[in-house]
Write a structure and sequence with these properties.
Elements: H1 7-11, H2 17-29, E1 41-49, E2 55-61, E3 78-80, H3 81-87, H4 95-104, H5 118-123, E4 128-132, H6 135-141, H7 146-153, E5 157-160, H8 167-180, E6 187-190, E7 194-199, H9 202-223, H10 237-251, E8 256-260, H11 263-269, H12 274-277, H13 288-291, E9 296-298, H14 304-323, E10 337-340, E11 344-349, H15 352-374, H16 383-390, H17 393-401, E12 413-417, H18 422-433, E13 437-442, H19 447-453, E14 457-460, H20 466-480, E15 485-488, H21 504-529, E16 536-540, H22 553-573, E17 579-585, H23 596-605, H24 610-614, H25 625-635, E18 647-650
Parallel strand pairs: 5-6, 9-10, 12-13, 12-15, 13-14, 15-16, 16-17, 17-18
Antiparallel strand pairs: 1-2, 1-4, 2-3, 4-7, 6-7, 8-11, 10-11
Helix pairs in contact: 6-15, 10-14, 14-16, 18-25, 20-21, 21-22
Length: 658
């Protein structure tokens, strides 16, 4: 590893120790080989003053919920140093008592909760303390000969066996310090846990970390060359969707299934021994909260994923039964990572952000496992020790902290046509706000940017191009694991005029886009919707179906045909659990269909002003695209789980329809 210390950047801290603490914390957090997704912690000891201006020694330590890669000064709550050190002298301290006492020692009660390693940071006498879960170091401790290797590599470090984080670890270090101190040591190596380095200046503490981890990396690289990567083979997308549905059903809620078919992931999944080596345990027990102890292994026939997930659940229940103590409630039994034989790894979670975290952990884990195997074996902590951390009360508190009402579409995958503007765009907004991952299709290239702004994926796609539609649906499934919601919204309003005067080119284009293209999109999506979670198709029709007006024959006929298509699809797909419903909006003037010219022409036809035309419904209200979008999102949700074949008006009430 190379030190990323930059004298000019550090100089901007102007000698402010807390600013330097932020600076080097970010250097550590920026390297995933050292710190992954909120892991690791750092601290600095300074002289400060309390509310009354009295001088006292303070410990600023990383706060819970902050990531070292992006941490700011508010991410370091300040604790009274002397009293924090005193906690290490106690014979025992429960997690509940430790949390309460640390909270009581905070100078600012409104600051984030301090790291569970706060006591350990306090008892190390140096001003700057850094702690990482460096892949290379932990890989060496996860080795049958790990003790000998670490002793050889780190004669200038205090080496300690694994114990639980928190008070137990702080007590272990405190006892060791009473016996020999740290004067002759550069750092502390904690088996299966990571590295601590320390110094009275920020640069030395940071560069000691870089130097110690470099030793481990050099040791590994001298003895191990990664296997050649393997190109990904074609993915059976229906098989991927089956895996996702099986895991979602096991967890009891929709899950995304993000496939990593990078060459190194495929090479690992193709190893003959992958089922054995991948299921010995995580790099560090800290990962178990994100990944569970072991991954799901999927191999064999396409339908084998159902039985594999069921077996994973039974094994997890047995693991819980073997290690559980009184008053513990079993977590869900669904996997978070799947190793798909010859295809790569699959990250499983209800949000794309969490899937990316899980995927990163899987990437680091497979590299460490293969290096460990080449160096004599991959030997992690026992199942019991990992269980202890998985069900540690402090870790459970972290998981529950953000819990609340589950968004209606959390973990769902939605595809919306005509998504660049109007009803389509607003529908994407509503679905994304309700937790769905949304893919929007539109012939307008602006859909790429507008969907990215929503955290979704925009695809420039002409719905008249069958190949482009197939590619878009396949891309959606490949990226996220399946498809649950299809919103058929793409449409045009052309060819105003009487039936007698209708331009045949306009007629054919309206029918092609509004009706035929929708049938083609549905036909491509239905095989994946069958494997979706509470799957739903929502078709955007029109008030013109029930109450057509003169001069819009092509549009009215296409929407009537579309409605009939949806009714037939509802009959065909109901036995397979796929719901199909139609939304009939009317006079939604903030859409691309309603140009100023069209609006003026329609108002003139009815002999009213444009403003009166906009509100000429029974409720006297103007219908907006967002009103239609909210109904679409609702109809696609479990609120309408018992509804199919319905036609729902969003028109302010129309006397001709009623």
């Amino acid at each position: 590893m190379d030190s990323q210390w930059n004298e000019e950047d550090a100089g901007q801290c102007n000698g402010d120790d807390l600013a330097l603490r932020v600076y080097t914390s970010r250097l550590l957090g920026a390297d995933a080989r050292l710190v992954m997704h909120g892991g690791g912690n750092t601290s600095v000891k300074v002289h400060g003053r309390d509310f009354f201006g009295r001088e006292l020694d303070l410990l600023y330590v990383k706060g819970s919920g902050w990531d070292l890669a992006t941490i700011e000064k508010p991410g370091f709550p300040a604790l009274r140093l002397e009293e924090t050190c005193m906690l290490a002298e106690l014979e025992r301290l429960s997690d509940v008592d430790m949390t309460r006492e640390l909270r009581a020692l905070m100078v600012d009660p409104g600051a984030p909760a301090p790291s569970v390693e706060a006591i350990l940071h306090a008892v190390i006498p140096h001003r700057f303390v850094d702690h990482t879960h460096a892949d290379a170091v932990v890989t060496l401790t996860n080795n049958p000969q790990g003790d000998a290797i670490i002793a050889e590599l780190y004669p200038d470090c205090l080496i300690l066996p694994y114990v639980m984080p928190g008070f137990v670890l702080a007590k272990q270090v405190w006892v060791a310090l009473q016996e020999e101190g740290l004067q002759s040591y550069k750092g502390i190596i904690l088996a299966h846990h990571g590295v601590f380095t320390f110094a009275d200046d920020a640069r030395t503490a940071y560069e000691n970390m870089i130097e110690l981890v470099t030793r481990a990396e050099a040791y590994i690289s001298e003895r191990y060359a990664p296997a050649r990567d393997r190109a990904a083979s074609a993915v059976d997308l229906l098989a991927l969707a089956r895996i996702r549905r099986a895991v979602s059903e096991q967890r009891g809620e929709a899950q995304l299934a993000v496939l990593d078919d990078s060459s190194d992931a495929v090479a690992f999944a193709a190893r003959p021994d992958v089922a054995e080596i991948a299921t010995r345990g995580p790099i560090t027990p800290d990962h178990v909260i994100r990944t569970k102890r072991i991954p799901l292994i999927v191999e064999g026939e396409p339908d084998s994923s159902v039985s594999a997930v069921a077996q994973f659940a039974r094994d997890y229940e047995a693991y819980f039964a073997e290690h559980a103590t009184e008053n513990l409630t079993m977590l869900d039994t669904a996997p978070r990572i799947a190793i798909w034989r010859d295809h790569g790894s699959i990250a499983i979670s209800s949000t794309l952000k969490d899937c990316r975290v899980v995927s990163d952990i899987a990437r680091h884990t497979r590299a460490a496992i293969q290096a460990g195997e080449a160096l004599g074996g991959w030997d992690t902590l026992s199942a019991g020790e990992i269980f202890e951390l998985e069900y540690w009360s402090l870790e459970q508190a972290k998981l529950k902290k953000g819990s609340g009402e589950t968004p209606a579409h959390l973990g769902k995958i939605a595809l919306v046509s005509g998504a660049a503007s109007g009803i389509g765009y607003q529908t994407c907004r509503e679905l994304a706000a309700a937790g769905a991952v949304v893919v929007g299709l539109d012939v307008d290239a602006s859909v790429v940017v507008s969907l990215a702004d929503l955290g979704g994926v925009g695809i420039e796609c002409d719905v008249l191009d069958d190949a482009a539609v197939i590619a878009a649906v396949n891309s959606t499934v490949k990226q996220f694991g399946g498809l649950d919601i299809l919103v058929c919204n793409a449409g045009v309003f052309l060819g105003q005029g009487s039936v007698e005067e209708m331009n045949i080119a306009d007629w054919e284009r309206v029918i092609a886009i509004n009706l035929t293209a929708t049938q083609r999109l549905m036909s491509v999506a239905i095989p994946f919707l069958r494997l979706g979670v509470s799957p739903a198709i929502v078709v955007v029709g029109s008030r013109n179906v029930s109450a057509p007006g003169p001069g819009a024959s092509a549009y009215s006929v296409s929407k009537a045909g579309l409605t009939q298509l949806a009714r037939v699809a509802a009959l065909e797909l109901a036995p397979e659990g796929v719901r199909v419903n139609v939304i009939h909006p009317d006079a939604v003037f903030d859409t691309g269909l309603w140009t100023g010219e069209v609006l003026a022409s329609s108002a003139q036809r009815y002999g009213v002003s444009v403003e009166n035309y906009k509100t000429r419904n029974l409720l006297g209200t103007e219908i907006r695209a967002v009103d239609v979008a909210r109904m679409i999102a609702a109809v696609a949700s479990d609120l309408f789980a018992a509804t199919t074949g319905a036609q729902v008006p969003v028109d302010g009430g129309n006397d001709r329809v009623i």
